[in-house]
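Input:
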Amino acid sequence: MHAADTRRAAYTLTLRSPRVRYGRGTARTDLPAELDRIGARRIMLVATARAAGGHDDVLSPVADRIAGHVSDVRRHVPAEVVRSATALTRDIDTDCLLAIGGGSATGTAKAVAVETGLPIVALPTTYAGSEQTPVYGITENGVKRTARSAQALPQTVLLDPDLSVGLPAEIARASAANALAHAATGVFAANHSPLTDLLAAEAVRLLGRGLQEMDREDLTQGGHLAGTVLAHAGSSAHHSVCHILGGAFDLPHAETHAALLPHTLAYLQEEQLDRAAALGLPDAAAAVANLLDGVRLPEASLGQATELLAPVMDPTRAAQLLNEAW
Ligand code: NAD
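Output:
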Protein backbone atom coordinates (compact mmCIF):
# COMPACT_ATOMS: atom_id res chain seq x y z
CA MET A 1 0.00 0.00 0.00
CA HIS A 2 1.26 3.51 -0.79
CA ALA A 3 1.40 6.36 1.75
CA ALA A 4 -1.43 8.10 -0.08
CA ASP A 5 -3.72 5.13 0.69
CA THR A 6 -3.68 5.70 4.45
CA ARG A 7 -6.52 7.86 5.84
CA ARG A 8 -6.40 10.71 8.37
CA ALA A 9 -9.56 11.98 10.02
CA ALA A 10 -7.91 15.28 10.98
CA TYR A 11 -4.49 16.81 11.39
CA THR A 12 -2.86 20.19 11.98
CA LEU A 13 0.41 21.00 10.28
CA THR A 14 2.55 24.13 10.34
CA LEU A 15 5.86 23.57 8.59
CA ARG A 16 8.75 25.21 10.41
CA SER A 17 12.19 24.19 9.28
CA PRO A 18 15.58 25.87 9.39
CA ARG A 19 17.24 27.13 6.23
CA VAL A 20 19.22 24.05 5.14
CA ARG A 21 22.25 24.17 2.84
CA TYR A 22 23.11 20.61 1.86
CA GLY A 23 26.21 19.56 -0.04
CA ARG A 24 29.64 18.01 0.24
CA GLY A 25 32.08 20.71 1.40
CA THR A 26 29.29 23.22 2.17
CA ALA A 27 30.52 23.74 5.74
CA ARG A 28 34.02 24.63 4.51
CA THR A 29 32.90 26.93 1.71
CA ASP A 30 29.59 28.51 2.78
CA LEU A 31 29.86 29.25 6.50
CA PRO A 32 31.15 32.87 6.19
CA ALA A 33 28.37 33.81 3.73
CA GLU A 34 25.69 32.15 5.85
CA LEU A 35 26.89 34.05 8.92
CA ASP A 36 26.89 37.30 6.90
CA ARG A 37 23.34 36.55 5.85
CA ILE A 38 22.09 36.75 9.45
CA GLY A 39 24.52 39.53 10.42
CA ALA A 40 26.57 37.36 12.82
CA ARG A 41 29.77 39.18 13.83
CA ARG A 42 30.49 37.89 17.36
CA ILE A 43 29.99 34.16 17.57
CA MET A 44 29.78 31.84 20.56
CA LEU A 45 31.12 28.47 19.42
CA VAL A 46 29.41 25.46 21.03
CA ALA A 47 31.53 22.35 20.47
CA THR A 48 33.75 19.94 22.39
CA ALA A 49 37.44 20.81 22.14
CA ARG A 50 37.78 17.69 19.99
CA ALA A 51 35.05 18.72 17.54
CA ALA A 52 36.43 22.28 17.31
CA GLY A 53 39.98 20.97 16.69
CA GLY A 54 38.80 18.31 14.26
CA HIS A 55 37.00 20.88 12.10
CA ASP A 56 39.69 23.53 11.88
CA ASP A 57 39.19 23.73 8.11
CA VAL A 58 35.57 24.79 8.68
CA LEU A 59 36.25 27.20 11.53
CA SER A 60 39.42 28.96 10.35
CA PRO A 61 37.60 31.11 7.71
CA VAL A 62 35.49 32.56 10.55
CA ALA A 63 38.15 32.52 13.30
CA ASP A 64 38.15 36.33 13.61
CA ARG A 65 34.42 36.26 14.51
CA ILE A 66 34.68 33.66 17.29
CA ALA A 67 34.29 35.70 20.49
CA GLY A 68 33.93 32.77 22.90
CA HIS A 69 33.78 28.99 23.15
CA VAL A 70 31.50 26.72 25.20
CA SER A 71 33.45 23.45 25.18
CA ASP A 72 31.66 21.74 28.08
CA VAL A 73 29.28 19.75 25.89
CA ARG A 74 27.90 16.69 27.65
CA ARG A 75 25.35 13.94 27.05
CA HIS A 76 21.77 14.83 28.05
CA VAL A 77 22.63 18.55 28.51
CA PRO A 78 23.06 18.98 32.29
CA ALA A 79 21.35 22.09 33.74
CA GLU A 80 24.61 23.35 35.32
CA VAL A 81 26.26 23.34 31.88
CA VAL A 82 23.37 25.40 30.48
CA ARG A 83 23.64 27.90 33.35
CA SER A 84 27.38 28.48 32.96
CA ALA A 85 27.21 28.55 29.14
CA THR A 86 24.37 31.10 29.30
CA ALA A 87 26.31 33.29 31.74
CA LEU A 88 29.41 33.15 29.53
CA THR A 89 27.36 33.98 26.43
CA ARG A 90 25.79 37.01 28.13
CA ASP A 91 29.17 38.22 29.51
CA ILE A 92 30.87 38.13 26.14
CA ASP A 93 27.99 39.83 24.33
CA THR A 94 27.61 37.58 21.29
CA ASP A 95 25.10 37.70 18.45
CA CYS A 96 24.99 34.04 17.31
CA LEU A 97 25.53 30.49 18.56
CA LEU A 98 27.51 28.25 16.23
CA ALA A 99 27.03 24.57 17.13
CA ILE A 100 29.31 21.96 15.62
CA GLY A 101 28.93 18.34 16.76
CA GLY A 102 26.24 15.75 17.40
CA GLY A 103 22.89 16.06 19.16
CA SER A 104 24.62 16.95 22.43
CA ALA A 105 26.29 20.08 20.99
CA THR A 106 23.11 21.09 19.15
CA GLY A 107 21.09 20.44 22.33
CA THR A 108 23.41 22.63 24.41
CA ALA A 109 23.14 25.47 21.87
CA LYS A 110 19.33 25.10 21.86
CA ALA A 111 19.08 25.46 25.62
CA VAL A 112 21.34 28.56 25.57
CA ALA A 113 19.37 30.02 22.62
CA VAL A 114 16.13 29.71 24.61
CA GLU A 115 17.74 31.58 27.54
CA THR A 116 19.42 34.29 25.47
CA GLY A 117 17.22 34.68 22.39
CA LEU A 118 20.23 34.24 20.08
CA PRO A 119 19.96 32.49 16.69
CA ILE A 120 21.70 29.15 16.11
CA VAL A 121 23.73 28.14 13.09
CA ALA A 122 24.14 24.34 13.31
CA LEU A 123 26.71 22.09 11.65
CA PRO A 124 25.68 18.53 12.57
CA THR A 125 28.35 15.83 12.58
CA THR A 126 25.99 12.89 13.26
CA TYR A 127 22.60 11.84 11.84
CA ALA A 128 20.51 12.43 15.01
CA GLY A 129 18.52 15.24 13.34
CA SER A 130 18.12 17.42 16.44
CA GLU A 131 18.99 20.49 14.32
CA GLN A 132 15.66 20.08 12.45
CA THR A 133 13.46 20.29 15.55
CA PRO A 134 12.34 22.96 18.06
CA VAL A 135 12.55 20.35 20.85
CA TYR A 136 15.26 20.63 23.49
CA GLY A 137 16.04 18.75 26.70
CA ILE A 138 17.81 19.65 29.93
CA THR A 139 18.75 17.19 32.69
CA GLU A 140 18.61 18.15 36.35
CA ASN A 141 18.89 15.80 39.35
CA GLY A 142 18.83 12.81 37.02
CA VAL A 143 15.56 13.85 35.33
CA LYS A 144 15.60 14.91 31.66
CA ARG A 145 12.81 17.32 30.77
CA THR A 146 12.01 18.24 27.20
CA ALA A 147 10.22 21.32 25.88
CA ARG A 148 9.50 23.00 22.54
CA SER A 149 10.43 26.55 21.61
CA ALA A 150 10.64 28.31 18.26
CA GLN A 151 13.85 29.86 19.60
CA ALA A 152 15.46 26.40 19.85
CA LEU A 153 15.02 25.71 16.13
CA PRO A 154 18.25 26.67 14.36
CA GLN A 155 18.08 29.53 11.87
CA THR A 156 20.52 27.92 9.46
CA VAL A 157 21.86 24.39 9.08
CA LEU A 158 24.87 23.50 6.98
CA LEU A 159 24.28 19.86 6.20
CA ASP A 160 27.56 18.51 4.93
CA PRO A 161 28.26 14.75 4.62
CA ASP A 162 32.00 15.52 4.93
CA LEU A 163 31.41 16.55 8.56
CA SER A 164 30.59 12.96 9.54
CA VAL A 165 33.38 11.25 7.62
CA GLY A 166 35.45 11.00 10.81
CA LEU A 167 32.57 9.55 12.82
CA PRO A 168 33.62 6.06 14.00
CA ALA A 169 31.55 3.35 12.24
CA GLU A 170 29.88 2.14 15.43
CA ILE A 171 28.72 5.64 16.45
CA ALA A 172 27.64 6.35 12.87
CA ARG A 173 25.56 3.17 12.82
CA ALA A 174 23.89 3.91 16.14
CA SER A 175 23.21 7.51 15.13
CA ALA A 176 21.68 6.38 11.81
CA ALA A 177 19.53 3.91 13.76
CA ASN A 178 18.37 6.80 15.94
CA ALA A 179 17.31 8.66 12.79
CA LEU A 180 15.65 5.50 11.45
CA ALA A 181 13.65 5.36 14.69
CA HIS A 182 12.42 8.96 14.23
CA ALA A 183 11.31 8.17 10.68
CA ALA A 184 9.90 4.63 11.02
CA THR A 185 7.88 5.39 14.14
CA GLY A 186 6.78 8.80 12.83
CA VAL A 187 3.86 7.21 10.99
CA PHE A 188 2.50 6.06 14.39
CA ALA A 189 2.94 9.47 16.07
CA ALA A 190 -0.08 11.52 17.14
CA ASN A 191 0.47 14.37 14.67
CA HIS A 192 1.41 12.35 11.60
CA SER A 193 -0.04 13.65 8.34
CA PRO A 194 0.16 12.64 4.66
CA LEU A 195 3.19 14.93 4.30
CA THR A 196 5.12 13.51 7.27
CA ASP A 197 4.21 9.97 6.14
CA LEU A 198 5.81 10.67 2.76
CA LEU A 199 8.91 12.11 4.41
CA ALA A 200 9.08 9.12 6.75
CA ALA A 201 8.94 6.60 3.91
CA GLU A 202 11.71 8.40 1.99
CA ALA A 203 13.83 8.76 5.13
CA VAL A 204 13.52 5.01 5.83
CA ARG A 205 14.55 4.26 2.23
CA LEU A 206 17.61 6.57 2.37
CA LEU A 207 18.69 5.48 5.85
CA GLY A 208 18.24 1.80 4.94
CA ARG A 209 20.45 2.17 1.88
CA GLY A 210 22.88 4.36 3.81
CA LEU A 211 23.21 1.82 6.60
CA GLN A 212 23.91 -1.03 4.19
CA GLU A 213 26.70 0.83 2.42
CA MET A 214 27.63 3.33 5.17
CA ASP A 215 27.05 6.01 2.56
CA ARG A 216 27.45 9.40 4.28
CA GLU A 217 25.33 11.28 1.72
CA ASP A 218 22.33 8.95 2.10
CA LEU A 219 22.70 8.98 5.88
CA THR A 220 22.94 12.80 6.03
CA GLN A 221 19.89 13.32 3.81
CA GLY A 222 17.98 10.55 5.61
CA GLY A 223 18.81 12.17 8.97
CA HIS A 224 17.51 15.50 7.62
CA LEU A 225 14.15 14.00 6.62
CA ALA A 226 13.88 11.92 9.79
CA GLY A 227 14.48 15.01 11.96
CA THR A 228 11.78 16.83 9.99
CA VAL A 229 9.36 13.95 10.65
CA LEU A 230 10.14 14.07 14.37
CA ALA A 231 9.61 17.84 14.44
CA HIS A 232 6.22 17.73 12.72
CA ALA A 233 4.68 14.31 13.47
CA GLY A 234 5.98 14.05 17.04
CA SER A 235 7.09 10.95 18.88
CA SER A 236 5.47 7.56 19.49
CA ALA A 237 5.40 4.76 22.07
CA HIS A 238 8.91 3.84 20.85
CA HIS A 239 10.27 7.13 22.20
CA SER A 240 8.42 6.67 25.50
CA VAL A 241 9.99 3.22 25.93
CA CYS A 242 13.51 4.55 25.11
CA HIS A 243 13.04 7.55 27.40
CA ILE A 244 11.80 5.46 30.35
CA LEU A 245 14.50 2.77 30.06
CA GLY A 246 17.29 5.22 29.13
CA GLY A 247 16.57 7.36 32.18
CA ALA A 248 16.13 4.42 34.58
CA PHE A 249 19.28 2.51 33.56
CA ASP A 250 21.42 5.40 32.21
CA LEU A 251 21.58 3.80 28.76
CA PRO A 252 23.41 5.44 25.84
CA HIS A 253 20.85 7.36 23.71
CA ALA A 254 21.50 6.20 20.15
CA GLU A 255 22.30 2.57 21.05
CA THR A 256 19.08 2.30 23.06
CA HIS A 257 17.07 3.38 20.01
CA ALA A 258 18.99 0.91 17.85
CA ALA A 259 18.49 -2.06 20.18
CA LEU A 260 14.80 -1.42 20.82
CA LEU A 261 13.59 -0.25 17.41
CA PRO A 262 12.99 -3.67 15.75
CA HIS A 263 10.89 -4.71 18.77
CA THR A 264 8.97 -1.48 19.37
CA LEU A 265 8.26 -1.26 15.65
CA ALA A 266 6.91 -4.83 15.63
CA TYR A 267 4.65 -3.83 18.53
CA LEU A 268 3.42 -0.64 16.83
CA GLN A 269 2.89 -2.52 13.57
CA GLU A 270 0.75 -5.14 15.32
CA GLU A 271 -1.33 -2.41 16.95
CA GLN A 272 -1.83 -0.27 13.83
CA LEU A 273 -1.18 -2.20 10.66
CA ASP A 274 -2.92 0.42 8.50
CA ARG A 275 -0.42 3.09 9.55
CA ALA A 276 2.57 0.79 9.05
CA ALA A 277 1.54 0.57 5.38
CA ALA A 278 2.58 4.22 4.95
CA LEU A 279 6.22 3.12 5.13
CA GLY A 280 5.73 1.26 1.86
CA LEU A 281 7.39 -1.94 3.12
CA PRO A 282 5.62 -5.30 3.44
CA ASP A 283 7.05 -5.73 6.97
CA ALA A 284 8.92 -2.65 8.26
CA ALA A 285 9.83 -4.28 11.59
CA ALA A 286 11.49 -7.25 9.84
CA ALA A 287 13.36 -4.92 7.45
CA VAL A 288 14.64 -2.82 10.35
CA ALA A 289 15.59 -5.95 12.34
CA ASN A 290 17.67 -7.06 9.35
CA LEU A 291 19.44 -3.70 9.14
CA LEU A 292 20.15 -3.43 12.86
CA ASP A 293 20.94 -7.10 13.41
CA GLY A 294 22.82 -7.82 16.61
CA VAL A 295 22.46 -4.56 18.55
CA ARG A 296 21.54 -5.51 22.14
CA LEU A 297 20.90 -3.50 25.27
CA PRO A 298 23.29 -3.77 28.24
CA GLU A 299 22.18 -6.00 31.14
CA ALA A 300 19.50 -4.59 33.44
CA SER A 301 16.71 -5.89 35.65
CA LEU A 302 14.00 -7.21 33.33
CA GLY A 303 11.38 -7.28 36.10
CA GLN A 304 12.00 -3.66 37.01
CA ALA A 305 12.06 -2.61 33.34
CA THR A 306 8.73 -4.38 32.69
CA GLU A 307 7.13 -2.53 35.61
CA LEU A 308 8.47 0.80 34.36
CA LEU A 309 6.83 0.25 30.98
CA ALA A 310 3.36 -0.25 32.50
CA PRO A 311 2.11 3.22 31.42
CA VAL A 312 3.03 2.46 27.78
CA MET A 313 2.02 -1.19 27.20
CA ASP A 314 0.57 -4.23 28.97
CA PRO A 315 3.05 -6.19 31.12
CA THR A 316 2.97 -9.41 29.08
CA ARG A 317 3.78 -7.54 25.87
CA ALA A 318 6.43 -5.44 27.66
CA ALA A 319 8.13 -8.57 29.07
CA GLN A 320 8.14 -10.18 25.60
CA LEU A 321 9.58 -7.02 23.99
CA LEU A 322 12.29 -6.73 26.63
CA ASN A 323 13.24 -10.41 26.39
CA GLU A 324 13.82 -9.94 22.68
CA ALA A 325 15.78 -6.68 23.04
CA TRP A 326 18.12 -7.68 25.88
P1 NAD B 1 26.32 13.03 20.69
O1 NAD B 1 26.25 14.43 20.25
O2 NAD B 1 26.48 12.79 22.17
O3 NAD B 1 27.49 12.31 19.87
C1 NAD B 1 27.78 10.93 20.08
C2 NAD B 1 29.29 10.72 20.19
O4 NAD B 1 29.87 10.94 18.91
C3 NAD B 1 29.99 11.69 21.13
O5 NAD B 1 30.96 10.98 21.84
C4 NAD B 1 30.62 12.71 20.19
O6 NAD B 1 31.76 13.33 20.76
C5 NAD B 1 30.97 11.84 19.00
N1 NAD B 1 31.04 12.53 17.71
C6 NAD B 1 30.08 13.32 17.18
N2 NAD B 1 30.44 13.70 15.94
C7 NAD B 1 31.66 13.14 15.69
C8 NAD B 1 32.55 13.13 14.55
N3 NAD B 1 32.22 13.74 13.41
N4 NAD B 1 33.70 12.43 14.65
C9 NAD B 1 34.00 11.75 15.77
N5 NAD B 1 33.20 11.68 16.87
C10 NAD B 1 32.04 12.38 16.82
O7 NAD B 1 25.05 12.15 20.30
P2 NAD B 1 24.07 12.10 19.03
O8 NAD B 1 23.79 10.68 18.84
O9 NAD B 1 24.53 12.93 17.90
O10 NAD B 1 22.78 12.82 19.64
C11 NAD B 1 22.12 12.31 20.75
C12 NAD B 1 21.59 13.42 21.64
O11 NAD B 1 20.79 14.29 20.85
C13 NAD B 1 20.70 12.90 22.75
O12 NAD B 1 20.91 13.65 23.93
C14 NAD B 1 19.30 13.13 22.22
O13 NAD B 1 18.36 13.31 23.23
C15 NAD B 1 19.49 14.37 21.39
N6 NAD B 1 18.52 14.44 20.27
C16 NAD B 1 17.62 15.43 20.34
C17 NAD B 1 16.68 15.58 19.33
C18 NAD B 1 15.70 16.69 19.41
O14 NAD B 1 14.88 16.85 18.54
N7 NAD B 1 15.76 17.52 20.43
C19 NAD B 1 16.70 14.72 18.23
C20 NAD B 1 17.66 13.71 18.17
C21 NAD B 1 18.58 13.59 19.21
